[in-house]
TrEMBL record:
Record-annotated DUF1996 domain positions: 35-284
Highest taxon listed in the record's lineage: Eukaryota
Signal sequence extent: 1-18
Protein name per the record: DUF1996 domain-containing protein
Keywords noted in UniProt: Signal
Keyword Signal in annotation: yes
Keyword Nucleus: no
InterPro entries: DUF1996
PANTHER family in the cross-refs: DOMAIN PROTEIN, PUTATIVE (AFU_ORTHOLOGUE AFUA_6G11970)-RELATED, PTHR43662
Length: 354
């Protein structure tokens, strides 16, 4: 069931009356080998991650921690969102076998963000829908780091851009090329970067804020974006998905392997893209997210010429200038050079194809 794939296409070319989209930028907080969800307490964790959100991010992220009260700043446009979102990091593998981290590009129309990600919270149009926002201590994982083949229940969507202009409008027009999206890393040279969308589940069991695998307390719907949740997970939660655009154009094709094969690999040793994954730890202040979901805030108008409404159009939430968000950062806990050419992937992660 390629539900997330169908949902993604629907969100790109959706009927704007069907859902409402809270879309905002989160600048880079830190890049380091920590994963308090999958490897709590490990310093360093096995592979490298890029992290955005509140600066309370740490090695353990104790579920009893009130992230909203513990953070002093956030890299996100909405100043009440102290949640943390993180994914694996993309690397370029040169002909001589060395590796270099691929930097991120800002997303369309939010070009002032320092790398990082674009975050979406989707809510249904039906204001009578009992959409339940996340609670303190809630966390979840989308995807499987070890995956190397297509998963029938979960996909990432990759898009290859040929270029972009000074306003960070990507070519081809991102609203008109959904059919060209792939569930694996693109094999051709993407001079304008590679975008990846990762989708979290929208159904919750209504009881557990987490589970041992960080997945079984949530589920994807049987059908559609909202509703039709399985009986085991009857509670509708917001559709969270994140976008990252990797600046693959920095690596000229003259540096690619002689056979022209795709030279990019994720930090857990994944050259396919099927193992791309994302972690989410809820940290919105108080009931701010619930208020925004109840109001069906919409700051993204998905038309052929998209209009990104200012965050102020969601008066239920407080905002901050992106320049202020960019100033929020955190020193590495697991210290290592993230910008040098290195002989192996961080942590010595081997590249695996199956």
């Amino acid at each position: 069931m390629l539900w997330p794939l169908l949902v993604a296409f629907g969100l790109v070319a959706r009927n704007v009356e069907a859902t409402h989209t809270l879309r905002f930028a989160c600048s880079q907080l830190v890049i380091e080998r920590l994963d308090p969800l999958v490897n709590p307490g490990a310093n360093p964790s096995p592979h490298m991650h890029q992290i955005v959100g509140g600066n309370a991010f740490n090695t353990t992220m104790d579920p009893a921690l009130d992230i909203g009260d513990s953070s002093t700043c956030t890299t996100c446009s909405f100043s009440e969102d102290f949640s943390n979102y993180w994914t694996a990091v993309l690397y370029f593998r040169a002909r001589n076998g060395t590796f270099k981290r691929v930097p991120q590009l800002a997303n369309q129309n939010i070009e002032t963000a320092e790398g990082g990600m674009t975050v979406y919270y989707i809510s249904p149009d039906d204001r009578n829908s009992s959409l339940v926002a996340f609670q303190r201590g809630f966390r979840m994982l989308a995807g499987t780091a070890e995956r190397r083949t297509r998963d029938s229940a979960f996909v990432n969507l990759f898009r290859c851009y040929d270029g972009y202009d000074e306003k960070m409008n990507y070519r081809p027009n991102p609203m008109g090329v959904a059919a060209s999206d792939t569930t694996e890393l693109p094999t051709r040279h993407c001079a304008g970067g590679v975008r990846v969308n990762t989708f979290f589940p929208t159904c919750w069991d209504g009881v557990n804020l987490d589970s041992p695998d960080h997945k079984t307390h949530v589920a994807y719907p049987v059908q559609g974006v909202f509703g039709n949740c399985p009986k085991s997970h009857p509670v509708e939660i917001p559709q969270v998905f994140i976008e990252t655009i990797w600046d693959t154009g920095k690596f000229d094709q003259s540096l690619w392997p002689d056979d022209g094969s795709q030279p990019f690999v994720f930090s857990q040793g994944d050259p396919t893209g099927f193992g791309h994954h994302a972690d989410y730890v809820f940290g919105w202040k108080g009931d701010s997210l619930q208020k925004a979901m109840d109001a069906r805030c919409d700051v993204f108008d998905a038309r052929p010429d998209p209009i990104i409404h200012p965050a102020s159009e969601c008066p239920q939430l407080r905002t901050q200038e992106q320049a202020v968000a960019n100033e929020c950062s955190k020193r590495q806990t697991a210290q290592e050079d993230i910008d040098a050419w290195i002989p192996t992937l961080p942590g010595g992660m081997p590249i695996t194809y199956k």
